[in-house]
Amino acid sequence: MLSGSPPFNGSNDKEIMDEVLKGEYDFNEPVWAEVSDAAQDLIRHMMEYDPVKRYSAEQVLNDPWFKMVLEDSIDKSMAVSALSQLSHFKVSSSFIFP
Questions:
Q1: What tens digit of pLDDT does each residue of 12-57 get?
Q2: How many CB atoms neighbour CB 22 within 10 A?
Q3: Measured between alpha carbons, how far is residue 79 from residues 28, 48, 70 in Å?
């Protein structure tokens, strides 16, 4: 959502899903240059492969970048819509993680 491009690379869907399942990603694509280091850091914490180390929802909400975004003049209806879409994605996602 921040860059318009996922951080997983591959020449086809299978290669991309293999990287997703291994937790291998990078922010090397040019579109990621537009995303701040603080936002990329939050994404890294949210995408941590080890669920014990992965940020909880509370940790995400308390992340400095997330707090800054909430304090800025954000369109509240857009935020509600984005959260709703993320919830729907989680429920309807066919990804199977080990």
A1: 888 888 888 888 788 887 777 888 888 889 888 988 888 899 999 8
A2: 11
A3: 27, 24, 9
Q: Evaluate if pTM is beyond 0.90.
A: no
What backbone phi and psi angles, to 5 degrees, belong to 22?
A: -85, -15
Please give the DSSP secondary-structure letter assigned to residue 55.
Answer: P
Q: In sequence order, which residues have a C-beta less than 8 Å from that of residue 29 and are 6 or more positions away?
A: 3, 5, 7, 9
Are 26 and 9 in contact, with CB atoms under 8 Å apart? yes
Domains detected in the chain: 13-92 (1.10.510.10)
Distances (CA, A) of 3 to 6, 9, 42: 8, 14, 14
Token output for 38: 């603080």
